[in-house]
Amino acid sequence: MDRMQVDWEQRRVRLSVRELANFALGPGAGGSGYSGRGRAEIGRQWHQTLQDRAVQTQATASTEIKPEVTIQAIWSQGGWSLELQGRIDLLLREGNRETLREIKTVRRPLPEDPTALRDDYPEYFAQLAAYVALRELLDREEGITRSAELVLVDIDEGLSQTVRLMEDDLDLFHRQVQRLVDFLDARHRRRLELRELTREAPFPDWRPGQPEAREALAEAATRDALLFFQAPTGFGKTGLALDFALDALQSGRCDRVIYLTGKSTGQWQAGAQLAGMRPEGPTGFRYYQLRNQAEHDPEGRWIGHREGDVWQARWRERATAIDALLEVGTLSLTEVQGLAHQWEIPPYEISRALLPFCEVWLGDYNYVFSPRHSRVFTEQPGFDPRQTLLLVDEAHNLASRVASGWSRNLRAEDLSVLTAELQIQGASRPAIRALQNLEDWLQQLDKTERIPPEGVAELRGLLARCNESLSHTWLLADVLTPFALELLGEIEGAYQTLERATLQILEWAPQKGQLRLDCLNAAPEIAQTLKSYQQVVLMSATLEPRDLTNRGLGLPPDAGWWIEAEAPWREGAYTVAVDTRVDTRYRQRAQSYGITAESLIELTAGGPLLPVVAFFSSYAYAEAIKRELEARAPHLVVVIPPRGIPLSEMSDFLELALLNAHLLLLVLGSGLSEGIDILGGRVERAVVVGPALPEVNPVQQAKLEAAEAGQSRQEAFREVYLLPAMLKVNQALGRLVRGPHQHATVVLQGRRYADPAYQNLLAPSYRGGTVIANRQDWDAWRNDL
Q1: Confidence of residue 485 (pLDDT cuts 50, 70, 90)
Q2: Who contacts 287 (Cβ-Cβ below 8 Å, separation ≥6)?
Q3: Could you point out which of 137, 207, 488, 624 has its C-alpha 20 to 30 Å from the C-alpha of 348?
Q4: Structure pTM?
């Protein structure tokens, strides 16, 4: 059945018996074992084997044996009605004696002390206890003697052990029910508290166009479950969307809000926006930004640690402190890392465990759209997308990011290391043989821009055998290295990617022994995910062209309700010139380094005491110009942000650069050019040195070929190469003017900007302007500034 469903008004809950038995707040139980589909598959096989054996050996004229007996019942407790359903593995009836039998697989020597088994597998005993309690509820026939037994099977040796359910074990079921009821009561209280929620306005002063856009959002939400919200950068769409979402929480139209964006900088700014909107006190809304594991554990202290049961025990000791910790609405990453040190629980596990206690989640696209990472959100207790409002910011990036989540990379040398580790850990011979065959195939794979169909068919067979053989072995996660776990996931993911008929995949080899499965289009997967949510708002300054946006999301051209925000204060906010003296194409750009450097030097002279910002298509281009600047004007302070600068350092870096630098060189499409909103009013002169066209490579060529199906090559080239490049330009320039009375002088440097094919893809505010063809034109234009 589906995951837990809650009707808050009727206080009714639908869930499976297994979900009830496994229900727990706190850190996820690591060490349950990686096996791809292995654990479930092995469990099914042993269920079938033992069920058949019982029917063959125990069934008599007086003994009735029923396998897979469905059970459904309503259990009432604490004012809640729990609609439970499950399947009893075996039900044996002999006269007035009834035995319930549950079969579970383990990977440990048997027989074992029953007390140890109860300590290590409480969820197994709780599930069996639930079946007994529900049978008692449904069948109160007098004179029936009812018992239950848990059959544990060691998958390595095939030995089994039967443990009878004791009277004390029935308490496990009642404790689990009470644990769930306590959680539901807490959530219900929060819902009632949120009805009385007060919140600060998203802005100290509303700008022209913002009230109208907020009203349009509210109106559109009554008309369609899918909303497109396009507004200029700096308009305040994040604040408006969050205000709209908090109103939905307060009114009870949704239970939770998820805010996604592809850059950590955007998540950080959304968190800052929420902080400003939250009233003081414990009854205000709670929100949490889930950062990635590397940010939680930069020194790698917790890598390889998987002690889920221990962590859960430590968490339960401190669970009463969670409400107090969240009185201010959220916890910072630094605070979580401090708790990790005190509690001896990994910081990432603490972050995950905080999510059920918060109404608003902030995170990366992966937590909703990635097949490998979405479970971090979707498996949280009480999560239901049908009661969740999804906000997707910078939605122009969504299609490409989701496609990258379905892409896979395998190397022969990595398979060799993995196979050696799995042999040590006792993987089955068929699994080792299948992995070695895949490794042999990879070793023979030569560099190629496209693997031929017969090669893909062979690869699909190899991956299928790996997947099948791994599904018949159970590898304990707590004894595997992180490298092995990651690579096993990549192999399983490669199989899933090739088997998913909805995806467009390029199978190629960038070098000998390396396989790339690059997803060119994941549109149907995106559409399916979007439809699972109660309501979705897709936001960006650059959603147009609308038909291409919808196509990339797997939606019909007219799907969704479109909201276009107007910002009258942007009229005349940009002075633009197109400098055609420079050829920014890769092979010719070095000839124009001098012109670009001199242009930047001269723009720093005679202007306001603010830095000049220059945007480049790559770090290499920016670094080349920096060297040219240092040679020509060593007195100028020229700054390029370090590659991979952490989120925690981005704002400080920019603040320092804006105070001290004469020239700040940024890369188009980076977090600093698209995700940081502090340039508005702090920069008045900017140069964009050429559009950042995607690199010509096999993946882009495959995208071009796919786009040509149904349109001309020129239109396909525009879609695959020009649009992504100009989106980055529009995004970067939009951050220079973020409010009334701000102004920016912009030089679009490069001959391409004079080409109508590029000009027409600029936002209206940046089109036209003075064309600079020579030195005289440049001097005349600069003198007029």
Answers
A1: confident
A2: 271, 274, 278, 329, 330, 358, 359, 360, 361, 362
A3: 488
A4: 0.90
